[in-house]
Amino acid sequence: MKNLPTDRDILKKIYNKYYDTFEDFERESKTRSSKIYVPIDIEEIANELNVNSELMFGRLYYHLNKKYGYTQPNGSKVYLLAPKVGNDKNAVNFPLLSAILAEMEETHKKNRLSIIFSIASLFISLLALLNTVF
């Protein structure tokens, strides 16, 4: 089975690739339809992550949108990936993406730290066992 990128890998790639685009928004020059929605090239991201572009679209639109999108109290929907925003195609809600990614990064750091402590504990236990046996 071919290695699939994690949700974290995908969002990190999008964040790093389009952060400057998000920052460079100018309402007067109409660089895009919305400040918070940044159009992305799904095929390019898929190629960089060595995945089929249809799979990438599906992960973003069907899986991550369902997981992280929500409905506001007034009934309006907030999407992670909107297929069309104004004239822009396949636009990500950049503030939402960065919040999700920040949470994923925090979880990743906690998990990595737990694994390091577990390995250290195992090593100390093995040393104690060896000390007892010999």
Radius of gyration: 21 Å
- Please describe the biggest sheet, giving its number of strands, its sense, and whether it closes into a barrel: 3 strands, antiparallel
The helix-and-strand class reads: alpha+beta
Averaged pLDDT: 92
| N/C terminus separation | 45 Å
Q: Report the order of strands and helices.
A: HEHHEEEEH
Oligomer: single chain
Helix content: 55-70%
- Quickly count the helices: 4
Strand content: 5-15%
The neighbouring-strand order within the major sheet is: 1-5-4
Shape field:
elongated
Number of strands: 5
Would you write up a description of this structure?
- The protein is of the alpha+beta class.
- The chain has one domain.
- The protein has four helices and five strands.
- It has helices at residues 7-23, 42-48, 53-68, 94-133; strands spanning 37-39, 70-71, 77-78, 81-85, 88-93.
- A three-stranded antiparallel β-sheet has the order 1-5-4.
- Strand 2 and strand 3 form a beta hairpin.
- The longest helix is centred in the last third of the chain and has 40 residues, at 94-133.
- It is elongated, with a radius of gyration of 21 Å.
- It starts with 6 loop residues before the first helix and ends with a helix.
- The mean pLDDT is 92.
